[in-house]
Amino acid sequence: MKPVIGITVSVEVNQNVGMTQQQVLFVSQEHADAVIRAGGVPYYLPLTTDPELIKQYTEQIDGLLLTGGWDVDPMWYQENPLPQLGEISPERDAAEMAIAQAFLVANKPIFGICRGHQVLAITLGCKLYQDITSQNNEAHNHSPKMPRNHPMHRIMIEPDSQLHDIIGHTEIRVNSMHHQAIRDYPDTVKVTAQAEDQIIEAIESTLYPNVLSVQWHPECMFQEYDHAQQLFDWLVKVSSKEKVHQV
Ligand code: MN
To answer: Could you say which of 114, 126, 142, 153 is catalytic?
Structure first.
């Protein structure tokens, strides 16, 4: 059996005629495409905090992919909202925190992308810049207008890291579609990539071996750039290893 990768989704109230006010779940198809190309089987996860459901998802799904989206409510890192905070979804925040926490406790693989990177970071005890531009005047533009697959800025990868083992380079160029970033992190979080302005672009955990996240969007780059596909290959590989260990 190929490993099953659970993919989290966004939620919004649909404004289309005929579906007015219905709550709809959505995520770009690219995530599933990249997981399939890596040899995994993608499943989409509904929004829930029900402990029974979270328990069963955690048992039956081999690896978790936390996807991009809106800002996380700063309540999750004990802050009040700044004027520059973007739109939030309390329901999605609660659902993703619950499943991420459950995967950590179960010691199962997690890969976070952009917002998913920030969700994982908060679960691991980090705090965010609610808005990079207004809180860090050294930073360059991390949300320029650009094609989604454009390698917009350089990042430096820590040589002693899983990320380096996966990608095999100490420098790559990545796309950038975020106005938030990790600001503070505990000793148990290892920063594994930074942009030239020191903005954190990737982390791992010193407590959980198969957990990592990136601030950029490899799902928009996997068709053209090996370093993007290699992250999905890693997720599927460590997810299948977990399955072998359980047998
Ligand atoms: Mn960036």
So the answer is: 114
